[in-house]
Every structure is written in C-alpha cells, then in structure tokens.
Amino acid sequence: MVLYLISVGLSVTMGLMGFVNLAHGVFAMAGGYVVTSLMSRWGMPFVPALLAAAVAVSLASIPIERVLYRRLYGGEELDQVLLTMGLVFMSVAGATYIWGPLQQPLQPPAWLSGAVDLGIRSFPAYRSFLILCGAALVTALWLGIERTRFGARVRASVDNLRMAQSVGIDTSRLFMTTFALGSGLAGLGGGLGADLLAINPSYALQNLAYFLIVVAVGGLGSIRGPFVAALLLGISDSGFKYLLPEFGAFFIYALTMAILLWRPRGLFGRA
Amino acid sequence: MNTPALETRGVYKSFDALTVANAIDFRLERGARHALIGPNGAGKTTFVELVTGGLQPSAGQIHLDGADITGLPQAARVKRGLVRTFQITALFRRLSVLENVTLAVCERQGVGGGLFRPAGHHRAAIEEAHTLLEQLGLEDESVRPVNMLAYGRQRLIEIAVSLALSPKVLLLDEPAAGVPSSESGTIIEVIERLPSDIAVLIIEHDMDLVFRLAQRITVLVQGSILVEGPREAIAADPEVRRVYLGERDPG
Amino acid sequence: MTPSRAVEAFARRHRYHPFEALPWLAAVASYFVFPDYLALGAQILATILFAMSADLVLGYAGIVTLGHAAFFGTGAYTAGILAANGWGEPISGLLAGATAAAFLGFLSGLVVLRTTGLALLMQTLVVATLVAEAANKASFITGGDDGLQGMEVWPIFGWFRFDLFGHTSYAYCLAVLFLCWLAARQIVHSPFGRSLTGIRENVRRMHAIGAPVALRRLVIYTISAALAGVSGALIAETTQFVSLSFLSLERSGTVLIMLIIGGVGRLYGAFIGVPLYMVAQNRFSEIDPVYWYFWIGLLMVLVVVFARGGVLGLFDRFRR
Asked: Least buried of A140, C3, C80, C139, by fewest C-beta within 10 Å?
C-alpha cells in the first residue's frame, strides 16, 4: 500500500509526460528523511510531520522539474533514464553526507501502534492506517481527476497532448503542477511507509524496481492501476511467501512478467 | 486479364462505436491511374492503412493480384509489390539520400538482412539506387542527409524509395501535401512519368492534381464509398459537388 | 559530387581507417607501460566488450534496456559453475557462457521486444530482476549471497596459466575483445547493421520497405546477449569469482553510463567510456566512495544536458 502512495505519482508523471523518472524514489526518500528528522529532532507529531514533508518535497521538486526535466520532454528515453539515474546517484551521496549511512528509524505515534479490534479479527493498526490512507487517496485522486477542471485538463493532456495544447491548455504549467503533486505524494508515501521501507541513503536504488513494477503492472497514466497492482502484488506476495517460502520474491517477479506478457501496457494502461 | 491489381471486398473497420470503414468494395485495375478523394475525416488514410496492413480490418478481405492478403503483415505485402508513401514524410532523416534508397533496394533484393558482407560490397544495389535518383533528378543531393533537404525534395525521395521497391501497386498518400507550389511541379511530373504497368492510387485533396493525374475517381465520405467512376462523370456529379461545397482547396 | 563518386564513397565506407588501429596499439602498449595494473586492465577490456554489446542494441537498434546485466551474469555464472564443478577449460567456458546468454536473450527477446519505449524498458528490468532472484534462490549452485566459490580455471591451451599479476588475463581478454570487435564491426557495416539504424530512425518506414523488423531486433538482441555473456564469462574466469552483483540493476545502469560517456551508437564509445569510468572509479573509490557516487551522478546529469553524444560527440562538434 505504501508502494501505491509512492507509485501513483510516478504513474501519472510517466503516463502524462511520457517521462521515465527513475528518480521518483528520491522524492519518497526525501519525504521519509524529512518526517523522521522532524519527529526525532523537533519532536513534531506524526501527522503534521507527514504533511510538512509532502509540502516540502513538492515545492523542492519544482525547480528540479523546471531546470532539468523540462529539457527532455519528448526526448529519447535513454537521456531520461540517464538523467534520472544520475540524480539517484547524487541523492545517495547527498543523503549519506547529510544524514549518515545508517537507517533512520521511525517511531509511529502511540495511537497507531498495537492492534485495532474489529470484533472478527484484530488488525495491526499501522498497516490498517496505511490501507485506509491508500483507499482515501485513490478516492480523492479519482474524484479530483474525474470531477474537477484541473483533472479534466490532466486527462485531456494524457490522452492527446497536441490537441490539449491547441485547445489552449497551458501544458507546461500543468506538467509542473502534476509533477509537484506526484512528488509530494511520493514524499508523503515515503514518510508514511518509513517503517516498512526503511529510510536509508540507498532507498531510491533499492526500491526502484518495486516502484517500476507497480507502475508497469498497473499501467502508465492511470490512477486506479497502481492501486490495484499494489494490492494484487501485496496479496500475492504474502500468499506466495506463506505457501512456498523457499521461493521468496521469485514468484512476484514471475507474476509481473506474466501480467506484462498478457497486457504489455499494464492492467489499466492505455494502448 | 480481368483480375484487378488490388481489390477490397466488404472491408469494414470500427473502433468501439466508431465505424471508420463501412463495407468498402474497391477495385484498382492494372495500370490504373485512380484517385481517392473525400472530405477531411472521410477515412482515406484509414483505408490506406487497412490495405497496406497497418490496420487489421474488422471484417472483409483484401486481394492483391487475385491473392488474399488480408492476414499478411505489412512487410509481407510490400514484398508482393504493394507499396505506399506517407502523407507526412517518413524517411531516415539523418541518413543520406542515397542510403535511404539503397536500404529499400537491398530489402527488395532480399539482402537487407545480410550479416556477412559489408553493405558497401553490394554495389549493384547502390548503383541501382543511384540510377533511380538520377531519373528523378535527385543525384546532386545523394550524399546529403535527408533532413537538410527542402521539403519538396524530401517528398520526391519518398517516391524514389517507393519506386526502389519495384511496386506493382503504388499508393501515394497526398504526395504534394505541404509542398510549396514552386516545388510541386516536379512531383507531378514524376507521377505522370510513372511506368504504365504500375497501378497507382492517389489520395489527394487538391482537385487540380486529381483531375490532371487520375482517370478514375472514387469518392469516400465518412467511411463509405459515395460514388465511383471515370473522371468526367465525377466532375459533373452533383452529389460530389454537394459534398465538397464549402471545401476550400488546401493546396 | 559526380555520380560515381557518391557511389564510391558509400561503397568504401566500411574499409578500415588508420585511426581504428589506435585502441589496439594503446592496449598493447599498456601491457608494457603499466605492468602493475594488468589485472585492472583485463577487467577494463572485458567490460569494454560488455559495453560494446550494449551499444549494439542501444545505439544501433535503439532498444533501451535496463537489464543487460542479466546476460552478463548468465555468461559469468555459466562459465563459473562449469569451472567450479570440474570443467575449467577457459575457451569452452566462454562459448558455454555465450550460448547460455544467447539462449536467455532469445527467449526474453521474444517476449520483451513486442513492445517499445517505456513498456519495453520495464520488461527488461523485470526479466533482469527475475534472473537475479532465481540466481539468489538457487544458491546451492550459485553460492547465493556469498558468491560462487571454488572456481578453478585451467591454463589456456594447456599452457598459459592464469597468474596473480594478470599477464595471461590481460592477453586473453585482449584477444577475445579483438575477435568480438571484428564480429561487431562486421555486423555494423553489413546491410543488417544498416537496417538496424533504419529501425532506430524510423520504424514505420522500415515496415513500409518490407523489412522484417521484429526478426531483426530479435537477432541483434540475441547476438548482443551472447557478447555480453562472453564478457561476463571473461570476468568470471579472470577473477575466478562470480557474485550476485553481476546480475544487478547497478551493473546494468553502470554499463549505460560508461557508454553514454564515450558516445552511443558509434561502436567506439565503449572504448573510450569504459576506461575513463573504470580508472576514475578506481581512483575515487579509494579516496572517498560516497563522493564517487555524487560526482558520477553529477557527470551523468551534465552529460545528458550538455554533451548528449558523449566524448565522441564532442569530437564531432569540434570537427565541424
């Protein structure tokens, strides 16, 4: 579910701008670092720290988009891969410099630890909260995209960029806003999920494969896609590990491959 | 010798609710000079895509020289002599003119996939390409990269490449599109000089061009054939006039 | 240009140019000039082969892949496993590695090459991750996290033993690289190779001239995989060790970096980018590994923004 939060921004960015952003994990990592730093050094409570992280990362992503990414829109994939890979490497070094090489622990607030008893079963509170957040987010995003004018413009641009431009939509501002939104979400996800995906300097590299898989399976440019994909992959992962523990993550990748074979553009991707 | 060079029977294509080609029965006779016209969005380029293999029809058959090619991929159709040009020039922009045409010649000769001899050793192919360029008046620019040539010259190279494939049926998709009138004269001359054994179908908007080059005309409107017949009959047909009423010549 | 001169120029383009002897002269000279660095030199030569194989798919056919290390690692593990289980003959080890990698390349190519662009990129990543995970789980053969232990490589032709100083390794890698380079050069200048450039420049047009595009892409993908497998086997044999890092995303990414520094799609980019990168890495990692990451990242960003064609691209710009 954490994967969803982080990956939905990537899905939209890649689907909308056709831009391979391997550095998306960097924004998630930044969010995670901000949250843990705010909480441990300034004693800020969990939720405000999360929001602060999301906003901070969102704002920080804007100059990066303007200065660097913008040059490569519509360009060759290789260039985008390399640029963002370069950013990932720089982030690894930067994070190590600022925060040191060790993992940053996250102390979830008291109201999230322990279990929630729903009568039938008790669920771990933290994970339930994550799922709730994911569900809330997908609904909010879906409403936002389907019902607002902003969302309509985004959808139009995703469908047909040139048409959207000729109709008068300011696509570069749209890109900037969407990118900032996606990055902010990533930051939020990074902070929220810091317990599951440990915050350390190699975060962006280690988890890159996961983000890309969720987006690939879910489908580029779709909001629901990564949600379903994250859910599907999460459940299958637990299932496989329960049934056939010796094989570990192998089946997840095999499942991903199978899905991509059947639907090369992802479950909800546009052809 | 009644077999048409190209024939479609009941070709039908729809995307969900939108029908872009509706029961099209079309015949292109051998050695024909045939034009396909129609207002914007009539489905002319779609038709070309269906015939050449870029799109699969939802129903219907396509026959080339009597043989059913409906299931064949585009490259296989090209090998059988069904060649097209593109409305928006599709060339290897950073390669030289000579190389563009030579690539086509090599494919036709079946040596395009050769791994063991250098391309330079295939002199016959290179010289054939060069001869073709000479015939079209392009030999002076043969070593320049395509993207440095005027657009009108690029359209000519489009035609050169298609001729390099020894077509039996040639589909020209708006050959003069986007070309300033100072350069379109050469293109028209080249088309007029095409060998008479090639069946030529021209998609065009420019009525002057159509009436100059074509002997038979098919009018396509919203995916269906409105009317078909000899040039003079179509020119006089009131239905056709109505369809084009208000249509400005974009050329 | 008069007609025959245009044709002549085209017909002669594949002939050997004196400049092309430079890398080989440099390589041979290095053997004598840097006797203490032969082990590193052997690694560099083998990696040049790896980068060259990636250039074939990336620079010529335009297939962007993040999973080339899968073929590298497959070749390495094949040769390694043979050597660790009693068959240490190096040249047949190379061939076995090449075959295994080619096989993987063929199978994965059938699947992966059906798409292009982002979808293709993702699929190459998934394949590589699959292979890496399989190698991890099959630790009873591969040694898993600890790496493959107990490789024993026999002397080449029964005579040239692999020593600690790298004399044999260097010459071995140089010879293999040379042979593979000859093959790659041949491919690039053949009609097949030219058609790859066509596929990269304008796929629609390639279909429209009757070229079997899917087949050509599959063939170059398989060949490239085979060469990558050879390079992996070379490294395995000369270091007598294989680890999971041979299959990593980082390895795939690094080869892209090295290639872009030198210049993609010119066959010689590998010869420039790899030594530059590896020598620099060798130096900087000793000083401060963290900063190595930073500078290489920065370099990548700068190269993409300012110097798209890499070093060879800069040369071109100066010539004009």
From this structure: A140
Low-confidence winner among B25-34, B53-62, C34-43, C113-122 (lowest mean pLDDT): C113-122
Express each pLDDT in B217-241 by its tens digit. 988 888 888 888 888 888 888 888 7
DSSP H stretches of helix in chain A:
2-17, 24-41, 46-67, 77-99, 125-147, 149-159, 161-166, 171-192, 203-206, 208-218, 224-243, 250-262
Give B171's strand partners.
B84, B201
Q: B104 versus B185: which is more confidently predicted?
A: B104
Please report the pLDDT score of residue C180 as a whole number. 94
Torsion of CA B204, B180, B88, B18, to 10 degrees: -40
Out of A77, A92, A208, name the one closest to residue C293 (CB): A92
Helix (H) or strand (E) holding B14: strand B6-15
Residues B119, C197: C-beta atoms closer than 8 Å: no
- CATH architecture of the domain with residue range B1-81+167-251: 3-Layer(aba) Sandwich (3.40)
| CA–CA min distance B53, chain C (Å) | 10
What pLDDT does A113 receive? 58
Give the pLDDT confidence score for residue B246 in this predicted structure: 45
Give residue C69's domain range: 21-319
Minimum-distance CB partner of C308 among A20, A79, A212: A79
Residue C73 covered by a domain:
yes
- The SS3 of residue B228 is strand
Q: Do C137 and A246 touch (CB under 8 A)?
A: yes
pLDDT tens digits, one per residue of B42-97:
788 889 989 998 888 888 899 998 889 988 999 899 999 999 999 888 899 888 89
What pTM did the predictor assign? Answer: 0.85
Residue ranges, chain A, pLDDT below 70: 1-5, 8, 12, 15-18, 44, 74-75, 103-131, 134, 142, 144-147, 149, 151, 154-164, 168-169, 171, 194-198, 220-224, 238, 240-249, 264-266, 268-271
Considering the domain boundaries, does residue C239 fall inside one?
yes
- Phi then psi dihedrals of residue C147, to 5 deg: 95, 165
Q: Which residues of A touch C296 (CB under 8 A)?
A: 86, 89
Map out the domains of chain B as residue ranges.
Answer: 1-81+167-251, 91-166
Closest to B118 in 3D by CA, of A249, C130, A165, C10: C10
In angstroms, the CA C277 to CA C303 distance is 13
CA distances from C163 to C82, C91, C124, C171 (A): 20, 17, 37, 12
Backbone angles phi, psi at B11, to 5 degrees: -75, 130
Whether B112 and C211 lie within 8 Å, measured CB to CB:
yes
Written in H, E and C, the secondary structure of C297-308 is HHHHHHHHHHCC
Q: Which residues of A touch C284 (CB under 8 A)?
A: none
Give which of B164, B149, B176, B191 is closest to B88, Cα–Cα: B176
Question: Does residue C3 form part of some domain?
Answer: no
Residue C230 forms part of a structural domain: yes
pLDDT at res. A271: 41
Give CA separation, C316 vs A18, B22, B142, C61, C185, in Å.
30, 53, 22, 21, 20
The answer to whether C70 touches C105, Cβ cutoff 8 Å, is no
Query: What element of type H or E holds C89?
Result: none
**For residue A143, what are its two tokens?**
């409403």
Q: What is the C-alpha separation between A137 and C148, in angstroms, rounded?
A: 46
Cα dihedral C250, C251, C252, C258, rounded to 10, equals 100
Q: Name the minimum distance, in Å, from the CA of B1 to any CA of chain C.
A: 27
